[in-house]
Amino acid sequence: MNSTAMRASSAAPEFRAAGTDLSERRRSGVSRGPLIDIASAADSAIEWSADGAASIGAFTTIGTIATDARLTQAYPGIAAAAQGLATPQVRHLATLGGNLAQRSRCWYFRNPHIDCLKKSGAHCPARNGNHLYSVAFDLGPCVAPHPSTMAAALSAYEATITTDRRSGLSIADLLGDGSNGKADHALASGEMIRKIVLQIPRAGERALYKRAIGRSHAEWPLVEVCARAVVANGTFELVRIAAGGIAPVPLRLSASEAVLKDKPANAATIAEAARQASAGAKPLPKTGYKLDLLSGLVRDLLERLAA
After folding, report:
1. What are phi and psi for residue 293, nearest 5 degrees?
2. Of 30, 150, 189, 274, which is the most exposed, with the fewest CB atoms less than 10 Å away?
3. Domain segments of the chain: what residues?
C-alpha cells in the first residue's frame, strides 16, 4: 500500500450533511480529514414553478422525495427510485445532494489497507481482482460502478444541478464521462450542490423504475433502470431510459431510445430496444451477467409503459 498517497487523499476536508455514508467511511478509516458541517434549512424544500416544474433542494431527504404526493404524481420515476433506496432509516436521513456526491462502493476503495485510483493510487485493483459487481461498460481506468441511484433517475429526467458556483449542470457534467478514474464527481474542492431542477412534466407521460438486486431488501443494485415514455396512438412519442450499476457513471441508453422513437409500441419494437440496451458494452470477465439483467429490466419496464 502507498501510505503516503493514502494520507494525502484522506486529508481533504469533506462536507457532512446527514453523514449516512461518510460516517461509515470514517469508522473504517478510509476518510480521515476534517469535516465541514453544513446547515440544511435553506435547501431542504421542494419548490414548484407556475408551469408545474419542480426544483428539489439538495438537503431534501430521500424519504421526503419517496413519499411526497405531488412529486410522485409529476415525476413517478424519481419517487420510485428514492423508494427503492436503502432502508427507511437511511432514507429518513440521507439527502439528495449526498446521494449524488457519494463515494464509490467498491470493496477495494472501502478497504483502508488497499490503495486504488480513488485514493491517489496508480491502478485499479478490481480490474484484475474480484470485480463481480463492477462495470459492464468499461469506460475508464476505474471499474467501479457509480453508486448513485438518484443520479440514474435524474439522468432519465434530464435534470440540471445548481451548485454554489455553477448552474445548469447536467448529470453528465456533474459526474463526468467515466474516463477519470480518480474522482466520483466533477465538483471542485469546496463546491456544494444546492438544488436539482426538473423539467416540466410531459402531458401523458408515464415512468417506472426497477432494480435487480442480490437479496430482497436493503441491497445495492446490480443493475437499475429508470424509463419514461409518452405513448400515443400506439406509438412511442417520447422515450428516455437511463441505467445505473453498469458503468462508472449513469448511462442514458441512447441506442434503445433511438429504436423506440416514433415507432409502434409493440413486442417487436420493445424486444429490439432491449437488445440495443447493451450497445457499446465492454464487460469484464465476471460482469457479462449484468447485460442480461439490463436487457431484462429494459424490456420489462417498456412492456409495462406500453400497456
Report:
1. -60, -45
2. 189
3. 206-306
**Torsion sign (Cα): 16, 144, 198, 186:** positive
Q: How far is residue 140's CA from residue 117's CA, in Å, rounded to a whole number?
A: 11
Place of cell 445495492: 220
- Strands (E) in the chain, as ranges, are 14-16, 35-37, 46-48, 54-57, 160-163, 169-170, 193-197, 206-212, 223-232, 235-244, 251-252
Task: Tell me the sheet residues that pair with 212.
Answer: 223
pLDDT (tens digit per residue) in 161-192: 999 999 999 999 999 999 999 999 999 989 99
At residue 208, what are phi and psi to the nearest 5 degrees?
-140, 155
Rounded CA-CA distance 58/15 in Å is 13
- Is residue 112 within 8 Å of residue 28, measured between CB atoms? yes
What does the DSSP assignment read for 97-163?
HHHHTPPP--HHHH-TTS--GGGT-SS-TTTSS--TTS-SB--SS--PPP--HHHHHHHHTT-EEEE
Pairing state of beta strands 14-16 and 35-37? parallel
The parts of the chain modelled with pLDDT lower than 50 are: 1-10
pLDDT value of residue 22: 87
Between 289-306 and 267-276, two packed helices, what is the crossing angle to 10 degrees? Answer: 150
